[in-house]
Design a protein that fits this description.
By secondary structure, the protein is α+β, with helices and mostly antiparallel strands. The chain has 11 helices and 7 strands. The protein has 3 domains: 2-84, 2-Layer Sandwich (GMP Synthetase, Chain A, domain 3), CATH 3.30.300; 89-185, Ribosomal protein S3 C-terminal domain (2-Layer Sandwich), CATH 3.30.1140.32; 186-257.
């Protein structure tokens, strides 16, 4: 009798989940947790879009609670709609997303690889996605893609692996999608993983150190090459400047030489003109060379007429003259 009761409760919970999945399909329904208490039964519904599940002014909640109490005989049902905390780690949510993408004619391999990468980024240890049916062509097949580590049997698989199912209705037929996500590892495997991670981290550190040394050596070599190139460029610039200075000086010297030549030519012309012209001063005076020489020898009359100034004698000379005066002899 007790076993039948457990079976009936499980069947009732499955029927409730199917009903909620149909009505809340547009809200990205994930799963429900049923908590039975003596006063009421609490239903925690996890949904990707809670606004659509609640509806305007809570109409959808009222409709679902009435259906649960009338159809399934749930005593005093209380709905609690919550959003999924990490949707990439929810197997049923991922399966619904893949099925909706396949119905929009997205390629199966492409969408499966995208969601596998998203699952591993979210922090899962492993995942597996199976797509079965007429994927391409007339024959049905199953495509299985796996990434990371995943357990498929035993207590570890029951406790740590999340499984989700969905269906995609296509023109050739229905495609079945199964998603398995391993969220956690058992403790015995965590120790092994830590050891492996530690070894991998040490290898990465050694590689990074060696790469850093190589980069430093390459940078030093590049700096030396750049310095040499700069020195060569400076030498070329100085040589070019020296050439320019030489050109400027040569131009200046050429201009100076040309000016000197012009001045010399002008001086020669002036000397020739002077030699060719008669002396105007000689013609006006009408004197010969001999007369000129005589005139030069003769002193001028003005000089003769002028008396020469007498030189004043100094006091010493006066004293000497007084001493030299003859003494007058006295008569007897």
């Amino acid at each position: 009798m007790i076993e039948r009761k457990f079976i009936e409760d499980q069947i009732k919970s499955l029927e409730i989940e199917e009903y909620l999945a149909k009505n809340l399909e547009k809200a990205d329904y994930s799963h429900t947790d049923i908590q039975i208490t003596p006063l009421s039964t609490r239903l925690i519904v996890y949904v990707g879009r809670p606004g659509i599940a609640i509806g305007r002014a809570g109409k959808n909640i009222e409709m679902i609670t009435n259906a649960l109490s009338n159809k399934f005989g749930v005593k005093n049902p209380q709905l609690d709609i919550q959003s999924i905390s990490n949707p990439d780690l929810d197997a049923t949510y991922v399966a619904h997303q893949i099925s909706s993408a396949l119905e929009r004619y997205v390629k199966a391999n492409r969408i499966v690889n995208i969601y596998l990468s998203n699952i591993m980024r979210a922090g899962a240890y492993g995942a597996e996605i199976r797509v079965s049916g007429k994927i391409s062509g007339g024959r049905g097949r199953t495509d299985k893609t796996q990434i990371g580590y995943i357990k498929k049997s035993g207590d570890f698989a029951i406790d740590n692996v999340d499984v989700g199912f969905s269906q995609a209705r296509m023109k050739p037929g229905v495609l079945g999608i199964k998603v398995m996500i391993m969220k956690n590892l058992p403790e015995c495997m965590l120790i092994e993983k830590r050891i492996k991670d530690f070894a991998e981290d040490e290898k990465k550190k050694k590689k990074e150190a060696s790469d850093a040394k190589k980069k430093k050596a390459e940078e030093m070599a590049e700096k030396e090459v750049s310095d040499e190139g700069k020195a060569d460029a400076k030498g070329k610039d100085t040589a070019a400047e020296g050439k320019e200075v030489k050109k400027d000086t040569s131009k200046k010297t050429d201009t100076v030489k040309a000016d000197n030549k012009k001045d010399a030519g002008k001086a020669e012309k002036a000397e020739k003109e002077v030699k060719s012209e008669p002396k105007k001063d000689d013609k006006k005076a009408g004197k010969t060379k001999a007369e000129k020489s005589k005139d030069e020898k003769k002193p001028s009359a003005a000089k003769k007429d002028k008396p020469e100034p007498k030189k004043e004698k100094s006091t010493d000379e006066k004293v000497k003259k007084e001493d030299k005066k003859p003494e007058v002899k006295k008569k007897k």
